Amino acid sequence: IEEATGIIRTRAWLDREKVAHYHLVLRATDSSITEPKSTTTKLHITVIDENDNAPSFSQDNYIIYITDPTNPGDFVFGMEALDPDESINGRVTYYQSGRDADKFYINQETGVIKASQALTGDKVYELELRAKDLGIEAKW
């Protein structure tokens, strides 16, 4: 706290994911030498989120076994990517690409993957899954 102005500054960067709220008790004292007077007040600080994290999956690769046959619309896999940011910065959407992307449908909001055509359990299918947050300057 700057003594002359009362401006409060931080000594280090604040990170909402580590500490989201601060509660301080401030005291101001006048400069009287003989009878200084003082008062106190409480200050509550809420750290606003910044889009400083990208969504991440719990593992880099997934191996999924499907039943034979798997029909169009059948559930294949449910995935989840986590983003510790708050609000829209932490909301995740899902995308797919890769050699066999046309054989699957992904719900962009839930991450649930379903077959978009008949599949066989005898074949190996490759699908690349990505997650992106909805924040400004979105993170992948």
From TrEMBL:
<keyword id="KW-0472">Membrane</keyword>
<dbReference type="InterPro" id="IPR002126">
    <property type="entry name" value="Cadherin-like_dom"/>
</dbReference>
<dbReference type="InterPro" id="IPR015919">
    <property type="entry name" value="Cadherin-like_sf"/>
</dbReference>
<feature type="domain" description="Cadherin">
    <location>
        <begin position="1"/>
        <end position="57"/>
    </location>
</feature>
<dbReference type="GO" id="GO:0008013">
    <property type="term" value="F:beta-catenin binding"/>
</dbReference>
<feature type="domain" description="Cadherin">
    <location>
        <begin position="58"/>
        <end position="135"/>
    </location>
</feature>
<dbReference type="GO" id="GO:0045296">
    <property type="term" value="F:cadherin binding"/>
</dbReference>
<keyword id="KW-0106">Calcium</keyword>
<keyword id="KW-0677">Repeat</keyword>
<dbReference type="GO" id="GO:0007156">
    <property type="term" value="P:homophilic cell adhesion via plasma membrane adhesion molecules"/>
</dbReference>
<dbReference type="InterPro" id="IPR039808">
    <property type="entry name" value="Cadherin"/>
</dbReference>
<dbReference type="GO" id="GO:0016342">
    <property type="term" value="C:catenin complex"/>
</dbReference>
<protein>
    <recommendedName>
        <fullName>Cadherin domain-containing protein</fullName>
    </recommendedName>
</protein>
<dbReference type="GO" id="GO:0005509">
    <property type="term" value="F:calcium ion binding"/>
</dbReference>
<dbReference type="Pfam" id="PF00028">
    <property type="entry name" value="Cadherin"/>
</dbReference>
<dbReference type="InterPro" id="IPR020894">
    <property type="entry name" value="Cadherin_CS"/>
</dbReference>
<dbReference type="GO" id="GO:0016477">
    <property type="term" value="P:cell migration"/>
</dbReference>
